[in-house]
Amino acid sequence: MPDIGIKELAQQLGISTASVSRALNKPERVSSAMRERVRQAAKEYGYRTNMIGSSLRTSRTKNIMAIIPDLSDTFNSGVISSMEATAAEAGYSVLFGDSQGLRERELRYGDLVQQKQADGVIFFGPKPPFDEHILTSENRSMPPMVNSCEVTDPKGFMVRGNPVPYVTVDNTRAADELVSHLIENGHKKIAVITGGKNTPSACQRLDGYRNAHNRARLAISEQHIFEGDYTIDSGEALTEKILKLEDRPTAIFCMSDESALGSMHTLHKHQLKIPDDIALAGFDDIRFANYVTPALTTVSQPVFDIGRICTEMLIAQIEGRPIENNQIILPHKLILRESTNRVL
Amino acid sequence: MPDIGIKELAQQLGISTASVSRALNKPERVSSAMRERVRQAAKEYGYRTNMIGSSLRTSRTKNIMAIIPDLSDTFNSGVISSMEATAAEAGYSVLFGDSQGLRERELRYGDLVQQKQADGVIFFGPKPPFDEHILTSENRSMPPMVNSCEVTDPKGFMVRGNPVPYVTVDNTRAADELVSHLIENGHKKIAVITGGKNTPSACQRLDGYRNAHNRARLAISEQHIFEGDYTIDSGEALTEKILKLEDRPTAIFCMSDESALGSMHTLHKHQLKIPDDIALAGFDDIRFANYVTPALTTVSQPVFDIGRICTEMLIAQIEGRPIENNQIILPHKLILRESTNRVL
DNA sequence: TTGAAAGCGCTAACAG
DNA sequence: CTGTTAGCGCTTTCAA
User: Fold this and answer.
1) Can you give the pTM of this predicted structure?
2) Which residue of A has its CA nearest to B296?
3) For B171-301+334-340, CATH number?
4) C or N: which end of chain B has fewer Cβ atoms within 10 Å?
């Protein structure tokens, strides 16, 4: 009993392929007798719908493309896992692409959507993964998409007058709160290790850093701003530089927990006590943040909801269901732990 | 200029669709004039091959299915990222499915392959993600597959007399080496937090634990074996239990670094000094292992190679290229760090 | 409620 | 080297 197609199955049952298809996909449109007979036989013969045929006919693949800057990043892992779970529940599969933050790769993954390998795309990046050309030219159909985590504009990226739906947190405010906490703890010289100049979330967090200083009428030394890339390595290496500063900061704000862990490592290596000698804060609240010593002060992002909601929004678009609210800013939360818990 | 198909493109150029297809996919089989003309026009009109049509014709989707027990696990993240990179380079995309270790989910993802959503499957699990039924029934085609990380049999899982290709490390030996290291350091009571009874890698690591004890003629107390599931939580919770043991162990071997970090947290909470009061070792060498305090002794697995090689092997199968060696055991490495570095 | 037949977009076999 | 043509497996009119 080799692989069997709808034709053979229909033949076996002495009915038309149309009936088989209907019995399987639109059960309400066939008699219950037919329904049962077909289902029974399908199971017996091990019939599986060939999705390629189905896709060609319906122009739907049941695949989603998700373009992520770094698949191995712990924060992203959480989002990925949540996207996958949400998609699976709705009968979709997810193609994950790692862009490394490179536009060229984003475009390559975007191409997959245009090539109909996927029905829509979730992208973590400042703009949709399509040519300028396509983005602007009128009367060209745009595939369903959702922007997440790396959202540039509070109005959403505009494509021909329409904002692209997004899901994110208020990075600016979150960083502001975190840095304000440091300032309230008496810190006046706070170094920051960023997530890159071209990364929207990092720019926003830097705005927050500046806002907090401004509000407290505290001067910012541009020498205290170090450009990292959210990785452990950058946290580790840049902290070395920070420690070489003649006017050493009393606190370090890393824009990701991964960087903060790298930073923590360097601080330990230099025998510095956290938070007494130097305070340290991260961002993301990855699950390890609470397990290192000292436990890391950070900002938690609703990882699970981010993944779930953007996937739901994308699927709603794909299936033509209306979306009530398509510019979603999820709540973050300041998590105070030992790494900044200095008693003055 | 709306979306354009091969037909319209051919029409615009006054040539046949066959020529367009050939110019794009088999450039060596058309004149260079034709090749250029078509490419030029394709670019100009923004033509993208509709992969569904192509797939229907060729029965190839250029997708790979990868079934992973936990997408958010740090060790897996590394493998995932490496799989994706390898696949992308070869022009494939990867559908990642999270099975949670549940057979039912494995089967659901396996179904996608049978439904031709993907050309082959990489699975982390004790057996292929297909019905018993399908696995045994003769004259049923089996899709290309590769087993990784959770490999039961050193001969490879047999499907109708043929071993399923695999890529893994020698978990038994690795755990043996690690536990032997502890024993050499004078530990006689070593608790272990496993990765689950039904998880091949965990069973193998437990074998290694036993072997090391046997070789050293050291008795094993079954009460020192705690069944975890590789997560931080299980490490944290089971360590609490370990500390309640009347005859407290002097070392803990966690079968994953994530568990070890959870364990470390509990030990810190109880003010125990690592390694002086109690030694701790993990497995995997996730990138955080070197960044916690004290740095964690562990076994490193060649994450990147695991992902790369199993993806390459799968693609080779898909494309009908011969595989020289399809039972691959990659080298591991004992990584000694502070968490077991006790001076006797 | 069911069947017949067209056709989704593409590539491969065959002919010229 | 290029064109003609068939058909991959399915769903969806349309008609009975």
Assistant:
1) 0.96
2) A292
3) 3.40.50.2300
4) C
